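step: validate -> pass
step: tokenize input -> pass
step: predict -> running
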Amino acid sequence: MYENSFPHKRYAHTLEFVKKHVAPGSSILDLGIENPFSGFMKKEGYTVLNTMGEDIDNNQSNIAKGGYDVFAAFEIFEHLLNPYTVLQNVTSDKLIISVPLRLWFSPAYRSKTDMWDRHYHEFEDWQLDWLLEKTGWVIKDRKKWTNPAKKLGIRPLLRAVTPRYYIVYAERAK
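step: predict -> pass
step: emit ->
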């Protein structure tokens, strides 16, 4: 639907998933600083709040103070050392989280020039599911998609058929 309107294929998949589960006009706490995807959500009628670039592993005050309908973390959990405590501090009853999946043919991403631009976790789907279950969330929907590259070679071929992204919608267990 939106495939050609976005700079990244994952934006189209992510926005479609958000629209399926979150009513326009809802306030979304989007973990991380304001980014291009925050703008796409705003254009669709969502009120988007972002955290301020603080080290989320050490400072979760923006999460714990509340004031949002839905907690969202789009490709952020892989950078955190301790997403467990983040999930414990979420005040809303709904969340959407997307993560890059661990690929057996590719090592975890690690920038050589930026110490913050690294993946501490690259999840398998069951690991994110377990983390959510253990912190009191019930997954209501999930989706995976590939990230094919327009290149030749074995890795691009594998990326065309192996899911790279995983997104879940969950509600707090009652």
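step: describe -> The two ends are 35 Å apart (CA to CA).
step: cleanup -> pass
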